[in-house]
Amino acid sequence: xADVTAPAYRVIPIIPALKPGAMEGVKSFVANDKIQEAIxxxxxxxxxxxxxxxxxxxxxxxxxxxxKVYMDACVHCGACSDKCHYFIGTQDPKNMPVARQDLMRxxxxxxxxxxxKLFPKLVGARDLxxxxxxxxxxxxxxxxxxxxxxxxCPYGIDTAEVTMAAREILDSVGYGxxxxxxxIGKVHKIGNNLGLPGPALADTLEGLEEDxxxxxxxxxxxxxxxxxxxVLLITPSADFFAEPHxxxxxxxxxxxxxxxxxxxxxxxxxxxGNFGMFIGNYEQLRKIALRIRQAAxxxxxxxIVVGECGHAWRVAYSFWNTLxxxxxxxxxxxxxxxxxxxxxxxxxxxxxxxxxxxxxxxxQGALSFDKGANDKHIITFHDSCNVARGSSMxxxxxxxxxxxxxxxxxxxxxxxxxxxxxxxxxTFCCGGGGGLLTDDLLDLRVKGALPRMEVLQxxxxxxxxxxxxxxxxxxxxxxxxxxxxxxxxxxMVGGVHQLVSNAIILGDK
Amino acid sequence: xxxxFAILLYLATLVFIVGLLYRIGGYARTPAxxxxxxxxxxxxxxGVVLRITREVLFFxxxxxxxxxxxxxxxxxxxxxxxxxxxxxxxxxxxVWGWVAFIQPFGIYAGITMLLGVAGLWAxxxxxxxxxxxxxxxxxxxxxxxxxIAVSGLTxxxxxxxDVVGVKNFMLGMMYFDIQPLPEHPGxxxxxxxxxxxxLIFPVSKLLHAPGxxxxxxxxxxxxxxxxxxxxxxxxxxxxxx
Lengths: 509, 241
Ligand code: HEM
Ligand code: HEM
Ligand code: SF4
Ligand code: SF4
Description:
The structure holds 2 protein chains of 2 kinds.
Chain A: H1 33-38, H2 49-63, H3 65-73, H4 85-90, H5 97-112, H6 114-118, H7 120-123, H8 130-140, H9 148-152, H10 159-172, H11 178-190, H12 198-216, E1 231-234, H13 245-259, E2 263-264, H14 275-278, H15 282-299, E3 303-306, H16 310-323, H17 335-343, E4 352-353, H18 354-363, E5 379-381, H19 385-390, H20 399-411, H21 442-448, H22 450-463, E6 467-470, H23 473-482, E7 493-495, H24 496-503
Parallel strand pairs in A: 1-2, 1-3, 3-4, 5-6, 6-7
Helix pairs in contact in A: 2-3, 2-10, 5-10, 8-10, 13-24, 15-16, 18-20, 20-24
Chain B: H1 2-29, H2 45-58, H3 60-65, H4 67-86, H5 97-126, H6 128-133, H7 136-157, H8 163-174, H9 185-200, H10 208-214, H11 216-219, H12 232-240
Helix pairs in contact in B: 1-9, 4-5, 5-7, 7-9
């Protein structure tokens, strides 16, 4: 993939002209039968896929109000049409959110609405053909489910919901994506997305303890499977070994150390990520989430804290309570959920984001910092899409924007915002979310990063920014990969807790 | 002719009401298994009511998205609302005070409504992206509104119809006692297309009007940690484990 190049920055960031078919050929690798069958999907495209697709679509329309309303409500006003980073980067009109939805809506109209049955041409309805199915596969794996389109739609139509439904339908007829489905298999088999087995994890953590000891002279622990710990930390597995993720893991450990909080990781459930969401499969989403409940019960922890990961935080914050009962209120018939309810300490938010934890501790005066340690950095903050638009922090609307920024300002002196049309709820996806963080989509990923790179370049030029902090494992991985292609240093990207780690003063507690 | 229009309008009204109730029932019955408000979102149900009210009255999200579409769309809808309210005078006797009061504004609303629709159509025709996503039905829908508005305005400004006669006809319809409909080609066109509008409402994108109230990304409160969300089939899975 050496031939992947960055698209040119737009001189004035106006809406690009259309280039129909520009990304037609882009097709993420299809899962083989082993990968598919391991998680209960048909191995190959089934013979009667046509009828199965329609039947599955009917089923989903009855199961998800979102899909049902979104299929009907769109007025083709075009408000969302220029809001997707993949459209901006690729100029392919089928990457406009409304056009992406229409790939499915056209089929919906043909098979589920009267006008579409009677006058397909008139209402833009089309038969489900093999070409249409391939087009679904191609373009529904060019959506990172970032929900930016949904912010601007007058009815809140969320293309991510349509993408999830499409992927669920494709999986159900044996047409799955290698990257996402392989990862889901690994979670079940090994316990995390990266397939890092327990002993290897233990080694890594031990190594980290030594590293930190060497750097600071202090025994900061990275405990695993400690029964009776106060906090169970659920973090993306990339935190265990990928750069720059690992520096944030060190940051969390130092915060726990400095505040005297007993904590533990779980070898059985060493993954915050939940790709069940990406493929829109409720059973997988739930199964993966239930692993956390199991770990919490086995370890007897009182609190569950989630590390820096965007989609994982969306799943944890918005879905966990429904799926696995981490939160307030449990089903009276569900014995395990009841046990969990009794065990959790309800004085705290459950689950809690590591940023909420750290910010609370800062508020209580439990942490002190040497801000000067971050003076080499001029920092900006990239809001990760799933945190910004799919979750919150602090218990009030917008806390997800304030809290990470507050932490940065508490631990560093130089902070600059990027253009407001690309931050907070309007933030652009890094270009690698939603199950697209795979090398077979590198071209798409590079193009999708364009809007973020443009505004980063602005603050680099105007303010000399040399560090872009974020709180998402996928953002970190994506940026370290694509930023060099745009001519930035890959080390410009890092976690918020990496900055915390730099500045925190570890007393001898 | 009077009988023909009476039948057509009855039929259209029936389809409109039954169809719309059926669709709304469908939306209401379909569960929303997960919490998916587009955040930042209000944390209380009062907040949600305010959020939807802002969307319905001011098109808040559209305002963030595109000022031109917002301006034209809002002009169109606000005018439409006024026009429809002004039309209440054909259905009430005596005419309610506030309906009488808005009559003069209603006339201008007819014109601004036409401007709004024309602007939206121009956007659809001229902006490459919007042209790309438009289906023939999107264009026809705007043509429909244009012709309804033009025929209405023609009756007002060019060739008057007997509005008292129209009123008698409509009141008669309401009591199932068909009165003669004034003979006027503009009126025929107007009423025929209004019937078409009612007929297509439950099977077209006009469902955005009920849809906006049922959109989970807008109508859910953002309180998943504090209040456990369950619904329909998602809840059933619970007892199976
Ligand atoms: C709850 C009430 C309603 C809300 C919140 C609402 C909102 C909107 C919005 C935000 C748009 C997109 C912007 C635009 O193109 O104007 C739109 C489009 C449209 N609305 Fe509504 N609407 C409502 C009711 C209605 C009703 C009752 C009708 C007709 C009887 C209607 C007819 C249309 C049409 C024809 C369009 C498409 C305009 C185009 O093609 O550009 N709306 N509506
Ligand atoms: C059965 C229902 C309706 C009847 C009996 C009716 C009748 C009329 C009449 C008689 C006029 C002429 C007013 C005058 O000369 O002062 C008129 C005008 C008008 N109508 Fe309707 N109409 C109906 C429904 C509608 C609907 C649903 C719309 C919009 C979608 C509409 C839009 C207009 C407009 C824009 C005007 C011109 C402005 C005005 O006079 O308010 N009408 N209508
Ligand atoms: S969810 Fe994000 S990636 Fe998908 S269409 Fe919307 S803006 Fe594009
Ligand atoms: S903004 Fe919403 S209604 Fe408008 S075209 Fe996009 S999805 Fe459709």
